[in-house]
Design goal:
Length: 618
């Protein structure tokens, strides 16, 4: 049971001061190809897009109440990234639909009103708790690479990796989208409302039009090369070539047509019919041509995988296993922290979050560096790569990892743990470029079923290609561009035909001692998804800080590259961590944490104040 809102005083501070240089776990160049360079180059394109103030334009009356960042409900709850989508989910839940039904209705709306983040042209991961069978299922609707590609997909003729946007824009980065198949599979198992009834809100909005929100307008202006293909330029820019202004009415009759087809025929037309043909044609005929074929669509399957769960304190924390690195990396961070904080009396009653307690921030970023080193080395599609997942989450291993953390300074350098992979030996540590878009929705229905779903077209506006009124993903750039080093040591997450790129998406559900779901959470944010989600779990589960307060508190993170402190945080946390030897930078963070927690018989829904999402429950 968590506290709703609580503000307390006092903090503990470190005093030690050691200087440390170099927080970057990315290995140095090891051959002519510049390992890790693409990652850094892409992040330098990652403009500092400030969080949004409360939307003035999308100001709907939801369920009789004004849209809200925080909602309480006894029966059901929906939290999504956009008021229209939350309203669609709410309507389904109110008329007796299941959490899966509501997720479908919300996703169809999000693909329209938040086209920069997710849609049916992309992929998703979803954890689903079925109350009646007490069963947790992990759905993998990740995109797949065309069968025809190989590890050199993103290597140029000169032998160098593509620059990030050369790879992103156009057909080459498009994987077979998985959202539709995943949702259809889940609906056939756990749907209550008829499939065809779940598209109406999205069809109406696409037909009648919706008001362009502040965030959509900001991203059209801020994201590079949005207008680089004709169709998307015609869609998101006006006749003078200006980005659609805030409040402009945007209609999408083509998307409405596509949704009507999906409502009537299910996924068949999407994977085996006219829509598949359209997506293949658009991707292949692009000047940055794809090798996608109709067969790639025909054989696509969403996969149901074993959820990745670990006991943390008195909780069971569950996430998504590979090909997402979200579950295992979040659990590794928490597992390492559990070992380190147990002797520190950290469950002290005056804890107010990492910003006020630099020692806990120090542990968090050091645990993150350790977990990311393993993630960057070992996590990839388990249908192609031997992932030593049990070893990575083993208690003894995490305890040993935790002992590497030094109390009064950052670790000099962080290596991945050493596991010998059959037939391969070692893998090469290699991050992959991931910029921030994506969306997370959390839903609980009146039957007690729970959805935690993160959905993405990868970078904002994906590949910039459109078919059927929706944007196609650029998810293949989540592969490592570089397949191996000069010694031919392989990268686990290299491109292979039919393979799913590694993800950071971290839909999570936390269970209490009685195996009842008590917290549902996830976020967008590229690889920062992991520390966004892990920080809140750390503060809420370890220190009993309220969910609302934790989501509002500044992010402090290190994904193995550098220590970032969210702009607006107190100077004291910056100075203390710097004095300790870290090299922090202030940076805007646009997490979109959408969470639900249970408190006795009530659900509390919380939408991240950094985005335009809202919670609504009854
Ligand atoms: N493509 C990323 C992933 O699958 C997500 C990108 C984002 O969150 O912006 O992990």
């Amino acid at each position: 049971m968590f506290k709703f809102l609580r503000f307390r005083n006092a903090a503990v501070f470190f005093t030690a001061a050691f200087l440390f240089s170099g927080c970057d776990e990315t290995p140095p160049a090891q051959n002519a190809m510049v390992i890790g360079a693409t990652d850094r180059a892409s992040e330098s394109q990652d403009k500092d897009i400030a969080p949004e103030p409360e939307s003035q334009i999308v100001n709907l009356q939801l369920g009789g109440a004004s849209q809200n960042k925080i909602a309480i409900g006894k029966k059901f709850m929906a939290v999504t990234a956009n008021p229209h989508a939350t309203r669609a989910a709410y309507a389904v839940l109110e008329s007796g639909g299941s959490a899966i039904d509501a997720a479908i209705a919300a996703q169809m709306v999000l693909g329209l009103v938040e086209p920069q983040s997710s849609g049916i042209g992309g992929g998703a991961f979803m954890l689903y708790w079925d109350e009646s069978s007490q069963k947790l299922t992990a759905y993998d609707g990740r995109e797949t690479a065309p069968m025809a590609v190989d590890e050199n997909l993103f290597i140029t003729e000169s032998g160098q990796p593509d620059s990030f946007f050369d790879a992103v824009i156009g057909g080459k980065s498009v994987g077979v989208p998985g959202v539709v198949k995943m949702l259809e599979d889940a609906h056939s198992q756990y749907g209550v409302a008829p499939w065809s009834s779940l598209f109406d809100d999205a069809i109406d909005l696409a037909t009648d039009g919706f008001a362009v929100s502040e965030r959509l307008n900001t991203l059209i202006k801020a994201v590079p090369k949005v207008a680089s293909r004709e169709q998307i330029a015609n869609y998101l820019f006006d006749s003078r070539g200006e980005p659609l202004s805030v409040g402009a009415t945007l209609k999408n009759p083509q998307y409405a047509r596509t949704l009507k087809i999906l409502a009537q025929n299910g996924s068949d037309t999407f994977y085996r019919g006219q829509l598949a043909q359209e997506m293949v044609a658009v991707s292949r005929e692009d000047k940055n041509a794809s090798q996608l074929s109709l067969t790639d669509f025909f054989i696509y399957e969403a996969v149901q995988r074993a959820p990745m769960c670990k006991s943390i304190l008195s909780y069971r924390v569950c996430g998504m296993g590979p090909p997402s690195s979200g579950g295992s990396t979040t659990l590794a961070i928490l597992g390492i922290l559990e070992n380190r904080v147990s002797d520190k009396n950290l469950l002290a009653s005056d804890y107010q979050g990492m910003e006020k307690a630099p020692w806990s921030a120090h542990y968090f970023v050091e645990a993150s560096r350790l977990a990311f080193a393993d993630r960057n080395t070992y996590i990839a599609d388990p249908d192609f790569i031997d992932v030593p997942i049990a070893q990575l989450l083993d208690d003894t291993y995490l305890k040993a990892r935790s002992q590497k953390i030094v109390d009064d300074r950052p670790m000099d350098k962080v290596d991945a743990g050493e596991f010998t992979i059959p037939d391969v030996g070692q893998y090469l540590m290699q991050p992959s470029p991931e910029l921030v878009s994506t969306t997370h929705l959390s839903i609980v229905d009146q039957y007690g079923n729970v959805v935690s779903m993160t959905s993405s077209i990868e970078t904002a506006f994906g590949s910039r290609l459109m078919a059927g009124g929706f944007i196609l993903n650029n998810q293949l750039t989540d592969f490592s561009f570089v397949p191996h080093n000069a010694d031919k040591t392989l990268v686990a997450n290299r491109v292979q035909g039919g393979k799913r790129p590694r993800s950071s998406m971290s839909p999570m559900i936390v269970f209490d001692r009685d195996n009842q779901p008590i917290l549902v959470i996830g976020s967008p944010g590229g690889k920062k998804i992991i520390p966004y989600v892990a920080r809140v779990l750390y503060e809420v589960l370890f220190f009993d800080i309220s969910l609302v307060e934790s989501i509002e508190r500044p992010h402090i993170l290190n994904t193995g590259r550098r220590l970032e402190i969210e702009k607006g945080a107190e100077q004291n946390i910056f100075s203390t961590l710097e004095a300790l030897g870290h090299q922090p930078v202030f940076k805007s963070q646009t997490s979109g944490l959408h969470a639900i927690s249970r408190n006795n018989d009530e659900w509390l829904g919380v939408a991240d104040p950094r985005r335009e999402g809202v919670a609504l429950g009854k």
